[in-house]
Amino acid sequence: MASIDELKQRIDLHDLADRLGLKRGRGGDKALYHSPQHEDKSPSLSIYVNHPKHGTGWRDHSANVGGSCVDLVMHARGGTIADAIRYLHEAYAIPFDRPAPAERREKSTVEFIADRCYAERDRARDYLAGRGISDAAIDAALNAKTLGFNDWTSSRVQAGEVGHGGPAAAFIVRAPDDGRVVAVDTRYLDPALNGGVKTQTQGEKSGYFWTAVPRKLEEAMRVIVVESAINALSVDTCALPETAALALRGLANVDAIDFSFLRGKQVVICLDNDEPFPDGHPRAGHRPGPEGMWALYERLTSLDISAVLVDQAEWLAERSEGESARKPINDVNDYLQLFGAPALARALEQFEPWLIAGMAGDATRRGRSRIYLPSHDFAQYWRFRVRPDFTSYITKMERNDESGVETPVTTDLCGFRIASISRVSVASATSTMTGDTDQAPTVYFGVSVQAPRHGAELIRRVMFDDQLHNVDQWGKFGPIWAPAPFKRMVNILERGANLGARQAANFVGLA
């Protein structure tokens, strides 16, 4: 098989672009190509040949990616490097110098299921299109071999009983390190055939996420985290630039997935907008989706990954005839079906403005509160408004005498956002060695801050108790324009020091 360097020398990129079906703009030989990733009004993909600065290669300026002929095939068709090299050999009739090594390892059960689902993949299109998913999002997942269709039914379990099966969209879950199939999630077109159960998983559930195009996730600058694969495809339908979607496959994976690969990316959390459990329920007042967002926020912050929550306060359906109030929209796909991709794209750009993530400062809060704020703190809490790397302060509300509308007057507070203040209790070496409870552990405060100069990676520093209200210490993170309100803000954030709190041991030993 020819090496990548040999393929670069033998293949003309303009000819390859034609074979891949890339549409070229006007302008003759110097014209650019339209991106294969999304519909663009003007061409955005350049091909360079012996360019003094860029050499020979290509670049999709709209997606900020580029590379060789192998990369162009993956950009247009999806799949792995091996798939791209095989395509180039077949498209240009380049002989395989040596036969591909035989598969020595026997395929697992879940790999056989994935192969069968992928063979029937085109049957998933109608179902997904009916859920508002775009053809471009479906094609990208099909090319990456993460989507299929499963029509298995049990010969032992009767239709209408749990375990019978039936036609279902299949989402093929691949391990992030080597791309091997680890699970297949099925979503039944008619859950009634399967006893009312909507989804089923074959293979591993814990510790693995689903994404439509793994390569796109690697290159993305922003990652939107949702609960299910349908919701992830709904995000992909919006075709947001430099953005990929990741499906948790269940709230239990908030603690099971290794999210360290997201460092340097801006993470947007948008789990299901669940209603509180009613009175009388064992978990009355709890909301699984929003509380999962809180837990994921803490998990990512502890890894120095910047995370923000989508503001779902206005996720309300249109009022139907006879209804007294508008019903909340539950998830991303429901929003897509109701209002379309452009509206969903705008909704995903609306982040919670509150100082403590998931802690509303107005009457929009439903269910239990993330933390308790005394009345004197809550009376000031609503004034502080944050963006990913900036904080503002509402000084007053101006009322229009004619319309009666109140408008907030906002001033800049500081040039960064405090993502977390967590208490760290460090036991002494003596306590660690003896096992006795330390009656006076040393208490520190771990501070995580997002500042513009560090992008989406959080800055972490440790402060002593007497440094926490020292504005000079905070000034090392960035400018502080209003010291007095800033101190009030820190005082409120102290209430949440138990969120992400940790205990540590002070011990150095030799084994």
Give the CA-CA distance, first to last residue: 51 Å
Our Rg estimate from Cα atoms comes to 27 Å
Spans of at least 5 consecutive residues whose pLDDT stays below 50 are none
Largest sheet: 4 strands, antiparallel
* Strands side by side in the biggest sheet: 4-5-6-7
Which strand-content bin applies to the residues? 15-25%
Tell me, rounded to a whole number, the average pLDDT. 90
Helical fraction: 25-40%
User: What is the CATH top level name of the largest domain?
Assistant: Alpha Beta
Number of strands: 18
Question: What is the second-level CATH architecture of the largest domain?
Answer: 3-Layer(aba) Sandwich
Structural notes for this entry:
By secondary structure, the chain is α+β, with helices and mostly antiparallel strands. It has three domains: 4-91, DNA Primase, Chain A (Alpha-Beta Complex), CATH 3.90.580; 109-348, Dna Topoisomerase Vi A Subunit, Chain: A, domain 2 (3-Layer(aba) Sandwich), CATH 3.40.1360.10; 371-511, no CATH class. It is 26% helix and 22% strand. The chain has helices at 4-10, 13-19, 69-77, 81-91, 109-119, 124-130, 135-143, 214-219, 229-237, 288-302, 332-339, 341-348, 375-381, 429-434, 471-474, 483-493, and strands at residues 45-51, 55-60, 65-67, 147-150, 168-174, 181-188, 199-203, 222-226, 243-247, 266-269, 307-309, 384-387, 390-399, 406-414, 417-427, 442-450, 459-464, 502-505. The chain has a four-stranded antiparallel β-sheet. A four-stranded parallel β-sheet has the order 9-8-10-11, with helices on both faces. A four-stranded mixed β-sheet has the order 17-16-15-18. Helix 3 (69-77) crosses helix 4 (81-91), helix 7 (135-143) crosses helix 9 (229-237) and helix 11 (332-339) packs across helix 12 (341-348).
